[in-house]
Structures are given as structure tokens and as C-alpha cells.
């Protein structure tokens, strides 16, 4: 008998049911449920009687290896266990080995050819372009901002300076992972909002953001050290200097201020912005991916050129005193505004140019926009009776060689109570009958009628030529933005217009125009263009030439002396003690003009003023004060003159002007 086949390990034997369950004799013995006992070469089943009967090779198995029940066993009451069908593994033909090897070699050759071609492109043809791109990506460029030039007063006292500071920047691609920690460091040194900092430090799609500007350099050094200790990269700095004004509001109308961008917005900061700013430099260096500078990498530095330093003619102490005194008078008189100018008659240097209200250069946003300029050079107005001095100078000089028609302080004038002019009538500020005044008396009494009668002796065009020579109707060229020109009537003006401009109506001027014209007339007739710049130096301390406007002779020395005589008569007139200086002989002139109001196109209120000089024999200083639209007081002598007097009492001894030994006697004003 053939040996029984060893069953497949995956196969299971089905238990055969006895034939008698179907009512038929059993043809086979039922297998025991116990697992079969394996022998070395055969497999046997133990029968019911314990005897062993060998199985044939194919007995009880199908081709799939599962034992199927006989047909007669169907319905025996038990379902046989299903067997899983066996599937042999799928084999794919790979072809011959040599062919496969050739295919692999060809594929490798193609890949190497592509790599070689790309390498040739990078290293041979496009090497310079890729090198430039790489260098650009690894190169950082930082601007090197110059130090803005200083502005000092005539004595070297700093009025505007620059403090080293930086703007803190960041690369969000580097700072994003540690944004919270960086924000914590910044907020420990600066008054910043952590949430805002985190938002900036994690901003997407950019590699540059500003975090904080105007950070003092010392503070940034502490921040940088803290970040470095924490091994945090991606935070950088740019030079961002802070402009400081030690005096605050002192001289602010002249000095001006800068904006958030560091550019001048008013005053000399604006006019001289280019010179003060200097020339920006830059630093280029190779950086690591984290933004740090490579110590031995390429680095090119173009140094910045610091700005020019300017020394002003302004005297800070005199300026401070003038501003305080003027501000007090503007408040007490409830005026709209005022300004005061003190000028060195000998050279045209402005020693003080006060404004009230004014601006604090350190905090310009706290002031009204109208108060941030310099009204002494930007505001036009009708000068009133101060203009009579310029009219007198023109009349005296124009007729100095005319013999019998020559006009001098001794010229006699019959002044009626009223004077017909252009369909109207001219009157004086005081009521009177017919007066017999000398020209000296006309000026001392500030007679509009007497001045108009004198002016009618000279052609209108000639008077205009003199006023134009005095600097009216044109910019003086003083350093500062927004200088106004004022307005003069044309040479062919009507006769009534000539009458009006003779006593200060019908034309407009600026404060600096009027002050400079009067200073020139008193200075032997030599006009010095007004200036607030005394000198300048570059960053190395070398002197810088300043453009100077030429002087000019506007009246003769004789005319100058006669005008001084007229102005002295104003002060020395009886009852004018409030106009006199304690220890100096002086001359002056009040002014009260009707004030033109642009909003209504009408005259409303007054412009009050006073101008004076000292000493009489050799004039040194002149101060001109204007108070616009006072509600308490309406005359130049009552509102503006007290400010003039206090300024001059402070300035004259400060500049070493010797007191007058003896006062001159009053001269006749009537005939």
C-alpha cells in the first residue's frame, strides 16, 4: 500500500458523521476528534475499535485538499466548516539579465548627463548671475545716518541738538519662533504693547518690519545684550537720532522743529534742512542666514557726513526775557498775538525775535498750528503811526537839496481840525482846533493831518521809491520760511492814497521789514539786511561761508540825524515819562492803526505798536513791539510801549552800552 501523503499545514480535517444518522450503513469509520499522531513518514487515524487502518493517498480529499462529506450525509444537521481557497503566487517574467543590466546602465547615463548639464549651466554659463544672486541674499545694507547739525545762540548756548538713538527693526522670518520672548524683552525696557510686538515679529511674507523708533542708543545696547544672552537673532537697528531742544519754547519761532521723519518743519530747521541734515552713508556686509554679521566676510562702509552747525545772532537770555514779557502783555491786554524784535542797529543782527503765543519745539503738537511759525516775518498788517518816521525820512531826504521847499524838523505846518481827502476827511486821534506845529511837533503829536500835508509836497511816485528802497513791498531775505512781502500801492497812486500811506494806512508791512528799515535810517542811512545767522562750521569745525546780502545807503547821514531828532521829540515831550528809559537818552514812536479783518473784509479793532532806539547820539539797539487786536487798551503807548521799555532796560547794559551822562533838552515843537 502506498504511503499516506502528509497533509498540508493549512488544511483542516472535517469530522465525518456516522452513516446511521442518515439511516444507511456506515461505509467508513468516523475520525476521532483528537489530533492525529504524527509519524516520521505516514499519517493514520485511530478507529472506534482501536485498530489502525492505513489511508490511501487520495482517500477522503479533494484536489483542493479539503475533505468533502458524502452526498448521503446532506441534511445530517451539521454544516461543515468552509475552507479558504489556495492561490499560488503570481510570477512576472523579467526578461533576460543582460537586457536588464543594459537598461539600468542607460538610465544612469541619462541621469548623469542631466546633472552634468545642469552643473555646466551653473558653473559655466550662469555662474556670475547665480553668484550675484547669492551675494545679494547674503548681503545686508544698513544706512548710516549723519548727525544733524547743532543750532546755538550767539554765545554758544545750545538751542537744538541731536541725541544718538536707533530704530529697532526685525526680520519676521527669523523672529517668528521666538516672538513672545522677544516681545517680553522689549517691553521690559520700552513702553511697548507686547501684543503689537508679537504681531510685527510674526508678520508673514516680509523680511523687514519696524518695531520701535527713536530708542536711545544706551537703551538699545541693553536690549541687544539681553537678546544675545538668550541666543535670539533677527532683531536689528538703524540709526534714528532724536532732535532735542534744551530751551523748549525759547526762540522756537526762529529755530523751528523737525517732524517724525527728522526733516525740518518750521523755522531754520526747515530753511536750512539740507545743510543741517548732512549726507547719509551706508554699510554693506555679508551676513549669516540668521542675520548676524560674518566676522571675516566682505564689508564696505561709506561714512556719513554730519550736518553743518549754525550759530545764531539770537541771545537766548534776552530772547527768554522778551518772550516772557511779551506773553504777559498779550494775556493782560487780551490780544490775539504779539511779537517783539530787538536789532543791532550797527550790523542788522537780530538779538531777539519773540512771539506770543508761541510753540515748544520739543512738543509742537501741543500748540495751535497758527502759533508754530514766526509772525514777525510772516504776518502782514498796516503799521499805523510808526510809518510816519519812514514818511518823514523820505520827505526830508527827497527835498534836502530843494532850497526853499526843503523839509526839515523845523518846517512849519498849519494843521486844521480836519483835512479833506478823496471824498472823505482825515482827522487826528485827538480833537483840536487849528495848530501851528513844526515838523517835529507833527511827529511828536502823531498828527495824521500834519503828516499828510507834508507828504503832499512830494510826488507820490517819489515817496513810493523811497519806501521801496527802505525794503517795503519785498522780502528782506532774512533766514526763515514763509517771509511775506507786504504791499505797496503803485507809483501812480491816487492823491488820497498818498495821504493814507503817509500816516500808515493803505499799505501793509511785516515786522522785520519795518524794524530793518528804521534801523537803517537811524544808522547814518546805511541799511543792513536783517539776519539771524552769525556763523557756521562744518562737522570738522571749519568755518563755512554764509551768503551775505549787501548793505545799501537809503538816506543821507544828515537825514538820519534829523530823523533821530524827530523821534527824540516824541519821548521828550511833556507827559511822556512812561516812554523814557531810566539811564539812556532815547527816541521812539507810537503806532495805532485800524486793524483789517479778512473774515469780514472790514476794519475791526486796532494794531498797537511802539518802536524805540537808544542812545540818541550814537544809536546801538532798536526794539519794535507789535500787539495785535488788544481788547484792554487801544494805543501803542499804553499796550506796546511797556514791553519795549522792559526789553531795552535789560538789553542796553547787557551789551555794554554806556548810560547817557546828561539828557538833552527838549526842542521846540510849535511855531
Give a verbal description of the structure:
- The protein has 671 residues and is of the alpha+beta class.
- 30% of the residues lie in helices and 19% in strands.
- It has 20 helices and 26 strands.
- The chain has a 5-stranded mixed beta sheet with strand order 9-5-4-14-22, with no helix packed on it. Strands 16-15-26-25-24 form a 5-stranded antiparallel beta sheet, with helices on both faces.
- A hairpin with a 2-residue loop joins β18 and β19.
- α4 (179-189) crosses α5.
- The longest helix is centred in the first third of the chain and has 29 residues, at 97-125.
- The model is unreliable at 1-78 (pLDDT under 50).
Secondary structure: elements and pairs:
Blueprint: E1 45-46, E2 52-53, H1 97-125, H2 127-138, E3 139-144, E4 151-152, E5 158-163, E6 165-170, H3 172-175, H4 179-189, H5 194-201, E7 209-216, H6 217-229, E8 235-239, E9 242-244, H7 252-255, E10 257-258, E11 264-266, H8 267-271, H9 273-277, E12 281-286, E13 299-302, E14 309-312, H10 316-332, E15 337-344, E16 350-356, H11 375-378, H12 387-398, E17 412-415, E18 419-421, E19 424-426, E20 435-438, H13 439-444, H14 448-455, H15 460-469, H16 495-502, H17 511-522, E21 526-527, E22 533-537, E23 552-553, H18 557-572, E24 587-597, E25 602-614, E26 621-628, H19 636-639, H20 641-654
Parallel strand pairs: 4-14
Antiparallel strand pairs: 1-2, 3-12, 4-5, 5-9, 6-7, 6-8, 10-11, 12-13, 14-22, 15-16, 15-26, 17-20, 18-19, 21-23, 24-25, 25-26
Helix pairs in contact: 4-5, 4-6, 10-20, 12-15, 12-17, 12-18, 14-16
Amino acid at each position: 500500500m502506498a504511503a499516506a501523503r502528509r497533509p498540508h499545514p493549512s488544511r483542516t480535517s472535517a469530522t465525518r458523521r456516522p452513516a446511521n444518522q442518515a439511516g444507511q450503513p456506515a461505509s467508513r469509520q468516523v475520525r476521532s476528534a483528537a489530533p492525529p499522531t504524527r509519524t516520521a513518514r505516514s499519517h493514520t487515524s485511530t478507529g472506534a475499535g482501536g485498530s489502525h487502518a492505513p489511508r490511501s493517498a487520495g482517500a477522503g480529499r479533494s484536489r483542493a485538499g479539503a475533505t468533502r462529506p458524502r452526498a448521503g450525509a446532506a441534511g445530517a444537521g451539521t454544516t461543515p466548516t468552509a475552507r479558504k481557497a489556495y492561490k499560488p503566487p503570481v510570477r512576472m517574467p523579467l526578461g533576460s539579465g543582460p537586457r536588464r543590466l543594459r537598461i539600468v546602465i542607460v538610465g544612469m547615463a541619462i541621469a548623469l548627463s542631466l546633472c552634468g548639464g545642469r552643473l555646466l549651466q551653473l558653473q559655466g554659463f550662469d555662474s556670475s548671475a547665480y553668484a550675484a544672486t547669492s551675494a545679494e541674499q547674503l548681503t545686508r545694507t544698513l544706512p548710516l545716518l549723519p548727525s544733524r547739525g547743532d543750532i546755538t545762540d550767539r554765545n554758544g548756548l545750545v538751542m537744538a541738538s541731536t541725541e544718538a538713538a536707533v530704530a529697532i527693526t526685525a526680520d519676521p522670518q527669523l523672529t517668528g519662533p521666538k516672538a513672545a520672548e522677544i516681545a517680553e524683552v522689549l517691553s521690559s525696557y520700552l513702553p511697548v504693547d507686547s501684543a503689537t510686538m508679537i504681531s510685527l515679529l510674526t508678520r508673514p511674507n516680509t523680511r523687514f518690519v519696524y518695531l520701535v523708533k527713536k530708542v536711545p542708543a544706551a537703551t538699545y545696547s541693553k536690549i541687544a545684550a539681553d537678546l544675545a544672552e538668550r541666543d535670539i537673532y533677527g532683531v536689528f537697528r538703524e540709526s534714528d537720532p532724536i532732535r532735542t531742544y534744551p530751551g523748549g519754547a525759547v526762540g522756537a519761532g526762529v529755530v523751528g522743529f523737525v517732524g517724525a521723519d527728522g526733516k525740518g518743519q518750521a523755522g531754520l530747521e526747515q530753511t536750512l534742512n539740507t545743510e543741517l541734515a548732512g549726507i547719509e552713508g551706508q554699510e554693506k556686509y555679508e551676513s549669516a542666514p540668521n542675520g548676524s554679521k560674518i566676522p571675516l566676510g566682505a564689508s564696505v562702509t561709506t561714512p556719513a557726513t554730519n550736518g553743518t552747525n549754525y550759530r545764531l545772532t539770537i541771545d537766548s537770555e534776552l530772547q527768554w526775557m522778551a518772550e516772557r514779557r511779551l506773553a504777559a502783555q498779550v494775556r493782560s491786554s487780551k490780544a490775539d498775538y504779539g511779537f517783539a524784535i530787538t536789532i543791532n542797529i550797527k550790523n542788522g543782527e537780530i538779538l531777539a525775535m519773540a512771539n506770543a503765543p508761541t510753540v515748544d519745539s520739543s512738543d509742537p503738537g501741543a500748540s495751535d498750528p497758527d502759533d508754530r511759525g514766526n509772525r514777525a516775518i510772516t504776518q502782514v498788517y498796516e503799521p499805523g503811526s510808526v510809518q510816519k518816521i519812514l514818511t518823514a525820512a523820505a520827505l526830508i531826504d527827497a527835498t534836502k537839496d530843494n532850497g526853499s521847499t526843503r523839509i526839515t524838523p523845523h518846517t512849519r505846518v498849519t494843521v486844521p481840525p480836519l483835512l479833506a481827502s478823496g471824498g472823505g476827511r482825515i482827522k487826528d486821534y485827538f480833537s483840536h482846533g487849528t495848530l501851528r506845529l513844526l515838523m517835529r511837533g507833527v511827529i511828536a503829536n502823531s498828527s495824521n493831518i500834519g503828516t499828510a500835508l507834508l507828504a503832499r509836497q512830494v510826488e507820490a511816485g517819489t515817496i513810493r521809491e523811497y519806501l521801496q528802497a527802505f525794503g517795503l513791498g519785498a522780502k528782506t531775505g532774512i533766514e526763515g520760511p514763509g517771509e511775506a512781502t507786504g504791499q505797496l500801492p503803485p507809483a501812480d497812486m491816487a492823491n488820497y492814497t498818498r495821504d493814507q500811506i503817509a500816516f500808515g494806512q493803505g499799505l501793509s508791512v511785516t515786522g522785520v521789514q519795518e524794524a530793518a528799515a528804521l534801523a537803517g535810517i537811524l544808522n547814518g542811512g546805511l541799511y543792513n539786511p536783517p539776519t539771524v545767522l552769525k556763523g557756521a562750521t562744518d562737522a570738522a569745525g571749519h568755518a563755512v561761508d554764509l551768503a551775505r546780502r549787501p548793505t545799501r545807503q537809503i538816506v543821507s547821514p544828515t537825514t538820519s540825524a534829523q530823523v533821530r531828532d524827530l523821534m527824540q521829540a516824541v519821548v521828550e515831550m511833556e507827559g511822556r515819562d512812561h516812554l523814557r528809559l531810566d539811564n539812556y537818552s532815547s527816541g521812539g514812536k507810537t503806532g495805532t492803526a485800524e486793524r483789517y479783518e479778512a473774515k469780514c473784509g472790514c476794519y475791526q479793532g486796532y494794531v498797537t505798536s511802539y518802536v524805540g532806539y537808544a542812545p540818541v547820539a550814537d544809536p546801538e539797539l532798536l526794539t519794535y513791539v507789535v500787539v495785535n487786536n488788544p481788547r484792554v487798551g487801544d494805543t501803542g503807548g499804553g499796550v506796546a510801549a511797556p514791553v519795549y521799555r522792559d526789553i531795552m532796560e535789560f538789553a542796553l547794559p547787557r551789551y555794554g552800552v554806556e548810560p547817557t551822562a546828561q539828557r538833552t533838552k527838549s526842542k521846540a515843537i510849535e511855531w
